[in-house]
Amino acid sequence: xxxxxxxxxxxxxxxxxxxxxxxxxxxxxxxxxxxxxxxxxxxxxxxxxxxxxxxxxxxxxxxxxxxxxxxxxxxxxxxxxxxxxxxxxxxxxxxxxxxxxxxxxxxxxxxxxxxxxxxxxxxxxxxxxxxxxxxxxxxxxxxxxxxxxxxxxxxxxxxxxxxxxxxxxxxxxxxxxxxxxxxxxxxxxxxxxxxxxxxxxxxxxxxxxxxxxxxxxxxxxxxxxxxxxxxxxxxxxxxxxxxxxxxxxxxxxxxxxxxxxxxxxxxxxxxxxxxxxxxxxxxxxxxxxxxxxxxxxxxxxxxxxxxxxxxxxxxxxxxxxxxxxxxxxxxxxxxxxxxxxxxxxxxxxxxxxxxxxxxxxxxxxxxxxxxxxxxxxxxxxxxxxxxxxxxxxxxxxxxxxxxxxxxxxxxxxxxxxxxxxxxxxxxxxxxxxxxxxxxxxxxxxxxxxxx
Amino acid sequence: xxxxxxxxxxxxxxxxxxxxxxxxxxxxxxxxxxxxxxxxxxxxxxxxxxxxxxxxxxxxxxxxxxxxxxxxxxxxxxxxxxxxxxxxxxxxxxxxxxxxxxxxxxxxxxxxxxxxxxxxxxxxxxxxxxxxxxxxxxxxxxxxxxxxxxxxxxxxxxxxxxxxxxxxxxx
Lengths: 451, 171
Ligand SMILES: Cc1cc2nc3c(=O)[nH]c(=O)nc-3n(C[C@H](O)[C@H](O)[C@H](O)COP(=O)(O)O)c2cc1C
Ligand code: SF4
Ligand code: FES
Fold this sequence. Notes:
The complex is a heterodimer of chains A (451) and B (171).
Chain A: H1 20-25, H2 30-38, H3 41-50, H4 63-68, E1 79-84, H5 93-100, H6 102-116, E2 120-125, H7 130-146, E3 161-166, H8 176-183, E4 207-211, H9 212-224, H10 226-230, E5 233-234, E6 246-247, E7 249-256, E8 262-267, H11 272-279, E9 289-293, E10 302-303, H12 315-318, E11 328-333, H13 338-352, H14 358-378, H15 381-393, H16 405-419, H17 421-431
Parallel strand pairs in A: 1-2, 1-4, 2-3, 7-11
Antiparallel strand pairs in A: 5-6, 7-8, 9-10, 9-11
Helix pairs in contact in A: 2-6, 2-9, 3-6, 5-6, 5-7, 6-9, 13-14, 13-16, 14-15, 14-16, 15-16
Chain B: H1 10-17, H2 30-41, H3 46-56, H4 60-69, E1 82-87, H5 90-93, H6 97-108, E2 121-126, E3 138-140, E4 143-145, H7 150-162
Helix pairs in contact in B: 2-3, 3-4, 6-7
């Protein structure tokens, strides 16, 4: 692989990279000026569509295609919601972009609104990002002063306002319709789709929801062109006409048991092993890896033997993971108990389930109760089958829930137990020598440590 | 209503009203309004919920419905001068985050969600703070405390106790 120069992270780490002056000094907002002067909304939308850019927020839906679902000739307003709720465990690239390069984001938001004819954009940011909030806020103020926002932007018949909107520490606000409900001032209960947001989103109007990193890709596409974007990453599979491919650069977040945790930019398709060895400086303390989360905890687990899996949109799925997700890789070294891993995962989802759908609310709560009991030395082999039954039946894939949180809860259960069953069985037999074969109903232990 | 009978000050009301032009509905100002109150009072008592409802043209129950969805806003009494969120999610847990949370709670003599008797500190567990590159970490007020150890956690507690914590102060 030829050496790849970071693009999305090019400004990160430079002094005052968050200011308009430095951003413009690096050529910032030139792409916006060019597009506004030379292109039309539909022309630019078609350009983005032809790159096959796929959303970076987790679902990987093609961005230009999503934009094209907006009704034509709508009287408006059309809304843009930028998803900066970033709460998937292991993921922190949006934070780095907002803290260090807010103008790259805003240029992308303005371009995306130009293409979609949106006249108001809300940036929904999680409350736990105070520095990001301040930096984005100042950058927006700078844009108004410079004429990049407001009425008649750069003399064109195009007006746009951008507002920051803060969440209140709930993971489900990252789900796009949970975000919309929360923005409207309601409980963040995801909506049943259809209607999709493009048809009826926030305030009953057509709405686009895009991730922070996605709009940064839009900025770079405007600056460098369609050909450039398509020269990076993994082309679509010629045998599968519906595969949009995995084009462009990607921000990989690496954490857990590696020597150099951090956010690294690489072409889509780098393998998990390359990421750990070439960027992360290998597994810490000279140890071996046992497993890794491929793209945020919702995606499940890769075993060490699966580390050569390419981290593109179709790679992790081929080894039984949910998908690429947020491309946040968390490395577990050989000393980690897989029981502890799954307990941590189940606790997260039990805490974050919004409670609307019975399979998700009960499934996540009971899986945590079972893991608590297993950890306390009262597990039974039968519990593994009960857990798998939960894992196989909750989610939008089996068709039992409203949103994908339940799938994200299910995958770590399925992957951990199916890929590490012997370790679970060994743990249960060792810690519960007299009761591990029991099959009758048992009471759950009270869950400790939850609010 | 006379100012003395209200819990929302004129300043808070002005801060809330400044959000109105941003949204096509008043209800959308619910979360911003809750934050305005919470950042000043460190909690959102029921009286404030009623007054926010009046401002936004909503029934108190509608505001309370939204508020109660987020485990974020305390209602019975204010949180401590510093509110510290200690991450317990996977990347932090792999590097000792849960032990840091236990240690902080043990030394401060509280359980997660509780406030020290002197009212200086509330310790909360957090799910992933989006700073896994600095695991284990916590957010104390507006300050992200990175790569925590028991020693740095003790230093943090000492600073909070002295009341000198620049870390902890909410804006
Ligand atoms: C439970 C859940 C949580 C999510 N959290 C986020 C998030 O924090 N940030 C994000 O961009 N997308 C998140 N998503 C995906 C969004 O629903 C949506 O697909 C995305 O924001 C669209 O933007 P994109 O196409 O640019 O990726 C989440 C999805 C689910 C099911
Ligand atoms: S799947 Fe879970 S998180 Fe999603 S809407 Fe249903 S209960 Fe809520
Ligand atoms: S897991 Fe602790 S900050 Fe992400």
